[in-house]
Amino acid sequence: MHPERTPVEAPIQLKIADAIRMQIERGDLAPGASLPTLNELSDQWSCSLNSARGAVALLRTQGLITAGRGKAPSVRIPPRRAVRSSERHQVEKDLALRPEAERAALGEAETNHAMSIAEQRFSSRYSVVASDQDVSAALGIAVGAPVLRRQFEAVDPRTDHQLSYSVSHIPLALVEANPALLDETNEPWPGGTQHQLLTVGVEVMTIVDEVTARMPTTVEAQRWDLPDGVPLIFCRRVSFDDAARPVEISDAYYPADRTELRFVTPLRPADPDAIAAIAREGHTSAVVTTR
Amino acid sequence: MHPERTPVEAPIQLKIADAIRMQIERGDLAPGASLPTLNELSDQWSCSLNSARGAVALLRTQGLITAGRGKAPSVRIPPRRAVRSSERHQVEKDLALRPEAERAALGEAETNHAMSIAEQRFSSRYSVVASDQDVSAALGIAVGAPVLRRQFEAVDPRTDHQLSYSVSHIPLALVEANPALLDETNEPWPGGTQHQLLTVGVEVMTIVDEVTARMPTTVEAQRWDLPDGVPLIFCRRVSFDDAARPVEISDAYYPADRTELRFVTPLRPADPDAIAAIAREGHTSAVVTTR
DNA sequence: GAGTGGTCTAGACCACTGT
DNA sequence: CAGTGGTCTAGACCACTCC
Prior knowledge:
Chain A has two domains: 12-75, Winged helix-like DNA-binding domain superfamily/Winged helix DNA-binding domain (Arc Repressor Mutant, subunit A, Orthogonal Bundle), CATH 1.10.10.10; 82-262, Chorismate lyase, CATH 3.40.1410.10. The first copy, chain A, has helices at 12-26, 38-44, 49-61, 87-96, 100-105, 133-139, 172-175, 192-198, 218-224, 272-288, and strands at residues 65-68, 71-75, 82-85, 121-130, 146-156, 161-171, 204-214, 232-241, 246-255, 259-266. In chain A, a hairpin with a 4-residue loop joins strand 5 and strand 6. By secondary structure, chain A is α+β, with helices and mostly antiparallel strands. In chain A, helix 1 crosses helix 3 (49-61), helix 2 (38-44) crosses helix 3 (49-61) and helix 4 crosses helix 8. Strand 10 (259-266) of chain A pairs antiparallel with strand 7 (204-214) of chain B. Chain A binds a DNA duplex through residues 8, 11-13, 37-39, 47-51, 53-54, 56, 67-73.
């Protein structure tokens, strides 16, 4: 059909890397196990030290192994994934309606729940800024209109590594009725953003999450303490009120090796008569479909 | 506060890469613009050719630039993202209830809509396999129980590059009542999976999407024609019937540079009395919160 | 054909890990 | 201290692009 998979000859780095990758996938190299040293690799494949280096470098950028000086590289142990479910949107809304004592007891909602609150240094920065092109388009307001910008950040006090990061934008016109909402020292606010919006009469009715992923830059990688080859998941959340008007957007990043985003979509029940009709004719109708 | 950002001295590769990255972020290097050649870089930074190489290699693995032989590297032009919205879950369900003529006209649902159907080679492979550990856990059935495995794939006929890929598992006990469902030649099935399930009396009521991302392996990268530094988004979709029983799981991969996953979460309306109460007391209550 | 980046080699120094 | 991987250099060959 096509020219063979090896037009001339696969680079040695790729051949080495693929061989190791297959050993990992077959389980010959268990998570945590040590790889051959560079010297051993360059001997076994009779190539230069730097070519063996290139092979393990490739595996590193793919997140399959970890490497460090003075120690043979080892197969990566996949960390636990923290689950962030869209069901929390409804939970948060329910919580926003409860009395304050109850809200405070459950903690505030923007916080990363992966570790105890005492173990992270939480910070929030509020400011009123002019809406840029991007934010304006998402919120459906004029470019340059004033927006409340809230930046939430949690870092591990021991390592200074980022644990969570998000930026939220709300049209200032919506929230200036309650001056308390402009004061960052009121964070963490029991009940979260949805309760804050309720204090100015805004009820969130729909939340849209837009998810993509990309590789971190070098500085992002070290701020998050990301191993090589771990993407950042980017999630933009837009909240709409009962008039389908966007009232808040929130941009958040999550390290892909520790995060799973879960979205729950309830479907409307179908008309029982229509279901019955399909069950009756389904068999024949389906077969007729074949061309 | 902390030791200065440069404990000893940053590697030259990083310094070069960071300088170029900043030029890109500031806009000095527009998307599509050419970078300095390796010779120019090694001259400007008075380092070896290979060090300059290392710098652009880093930028490549971060997806910021594209490189190829014989041509200076250039700033990556971000491709258009195809949006896959969870709203299609409801659309698909509505469609499943329509007459066949209508269903056929709208095309089938598993197909990638980013390009015309005529321009892709679609293939599906059906088989009955024993459920493995992973699938069993997700479907809540015994390990080894028979499941219908459906693999959907679309490739670009010109380049042999993958356009979409997904694997679906359904407990065989659910679908064997309709033999037509076991025949892959019935694909594409008008109305999609939800209509197929309706023919055996199963109505999907909830869909849960679990999203993560990871870097592709070398073979995945070339199958999808992924530029360096582009993660794969992995989405596991689990469909539940009215008894909250999982009836189908589907694992799909999407190239992160061309895909945006959108999830719409409708929230239940709150009790008007509760809202009014918060609006009344909100201002004072919020201020009291300050510690 | 001149110039480009991709791959590879050989050899060097350094930072770090073990014993 | 010996051994490891990370970084860097100098030089080579090849595949490719552009003129």
